[in-house]
Amino acid sequence: xxxxxxxxxxxxxxxxxxxxxxxxxxxxxxxxxxxxxxxxxxxxxxxxxxxxxxxxxxxxxxxxxxxxxxxxxxxxxxxxxxxxxxxxxxxxxxxxxxxxxxxxxxxxxxxxxxxxxxxxxxxxxxxxxxxxxxxxxxxxxxxxxxxxxxxxxxxxxxxxxxxxxxxxxxxxxxxxxxxxxxxxxxxxxxxxxxxxxxxxxxxxxxxxxxxxxxxxxxxxxxxxxxxxxxxxxxxxxxxxxxxxxxxxxxxxxxxxxxxxxxxxxxxxxxxxxxxxxxxxxx
Length: 282
Ligand SMILES: [Zn+2]
Fold this sequence. Notes:
By secondary structure, the protein is α/β, with parallel strands linked by helices. 38% of the residues lie in helices and 13% in strands. Zinc ion binds at residues 87-88, 137, 141, 177. This is Polysaccharide deacetylase family protein.
C-alpha cells in the first residue's frame, strides 16, 4: 500500500506535492491500489477499462464511500470474549466437521462464506447455522482490490443474496479475501451497509503447523479479550490440523476464562462495556 503514496497517483496534476495533494495521494494509498499506472496493468494482466478500480482510476474520479465503514481487526473490551471465525466454506470435506465440534461445545462462530460454494452446498449448512453468524467472502473468493466497482458490487451482492436465502438473515460483515482492502472494497462494503471484518490471530500459523499441539497452545496463550481468531473450514493440510484440534483449542481458551461469541456479538459487547480495556502494565 505504501507504494501508491510514494508515487503521484495516476491523473494527478504535475507540480510540487503540496500537503493537500499528498493527503489525496494517501487516500488513494489507503484504497490500496497497486496498479502500475494509468494504463491499468495489474498482476501482469492488462485490465479492460471498466475493470480499473474506480478509486484508483484517477484522482478526479475518486469519491468517498457513501457511508462510514468500520474496519475491525479485533475489539477493544475488558470482557474475556473472543470470536472464532472460519473462512472459505462451505465445502463437504471439513465444514460439517467444524459444525460438529461447535455443536458439541455449544459455541457460536462466524463463517465467512464464499457465495458460489454456499449456493452449491447449501444442504451442508441449512438448518445448522442457528447460533452462528454468516458473513460475506465474495462469490468466488475474488480479489476485490482488483475489481471495478461494478464487478465488486456483483460478487458481493450475489453472495449477500445467497446468504440471505439460505440463512434467512442479512449479513452485515464483509471479509475481503486475503484481507485485501484496495480498489473499491470499502465502497462496495458501504453500498451494502457492511463493516469490514479482518482478524487479529491466525489459528493455523504456518510456522507452527507441523507441531499442531504447539500451534494450539500458541493460540490459547496469545488470545486476548476481543481477539478475532481466523481459522478455515477449507484448504490445505495445516488448516485441517487446526480443525482437528478445535476441541483442544476451545478447551484451552475456556480454561483461561474465555467465552465465545459471534463477531457481531463481540462488537456489541464491547460497545456495551464502553470499549477499551485498560492497557496492560509494562
Ligand atoms: Zn478466504
